[in-house]
Amino acid sequence: MNDRIRLAEERDTESILNVFNYHVSNSFAAYAEKEFDRRVVDSFVKEASVLYVQEVGDNVVGFGFLRPYNLFENFCHTATLTYFLLPQYTGLGLGTKLLDKLIEYAGDNGIYNLVAHISSKNEQSLNFHKKHGFEECGRLKKMGTKLGEEFDIVWVQKFLD
């Protein structure tokens, strides 16, 4: 498979938005129920320490970023991890490659503690994180509703070696 991960560029905004909005409309991976416009991508860029896109051929099929967990300097070693892939590209090792790239960036930048928050209804993501060494470290019950169902927010954490 001809795939690569690269830093996101301005030209990727629409593709990133399409990936994100797929999950808004079709899954519990994104919490929102209504699709977003480009302002959401602009907020990803503004908050992110790094934003990568996952390409297959010439198509952006996913993206991922790290953002500071907290803006206080004494939290500088901790980052929140977020990433999305279109469903037809899951199970092919692309998510692992994207996660590995984000971990590499984290390690190179003094970040050794990664956290992510995941909908309790997103079993695929929960299993993916567990498979890659993340452990559940907290659960906020009945935090949201989507598609008429309540869901918890599950926090997972991984310390980098």
Report on this model:
The chain has 161 residues and is an alpha+beta fold. It has one domain: 3-Layer(aba) Sandwich (Aminopeptidase). The protein is 30% helix and 37% strand. The chain has helices spanning 13-26, 38-47, 94-108, 123-131; strands spanning 3-7, 50-56, 59-68, 78-85, 113-119, 135-146, 149-159. The protein has a seven-stranded mixed β-sheet, sandwiched between helices. A hairpin with a 2-residue loop joins strand 2 (50-56) and strand 3. Helix 1 (13-26) crosses helix 2. The model has no long low-confidence stretch (mean pLDDT 94).
Briefly summarize what is shown.
This protein is an alpha+beta fold and 161 residues long. It has four helices and seven strands. It has one domain: Aminopeptidase.
Listing every helix as H and every strand as E from the N terminus to the C terminus, the arrangement reads EHHEEEHEHEE
Tally of extended strands? 7
Q: Supply the number of helical segments.
A: 4
Low-confidence stretches: none
Q: CATH architecture, please?
A: 3-Layer(aba) Sandwich
Give the overall form: globular
CATH topology: Aminopeptidase
Helical amount: 25-40%
* Biggest sheet, spatial arrangement of strands: 1-2-3-4-5-7-6
The overall number of domains is 1
The portion of residues forming beta strands comes to 35-45%
Determine the CATH superfamily: Gcn5-related N-acetyltransferase (GNAT)
Query: What integer is the average pLDDT?
Result: 94
Task: Work out the radius of gyration.
Answer: 15 Å
- Structural class estimated from helices and strands: alpha+beta
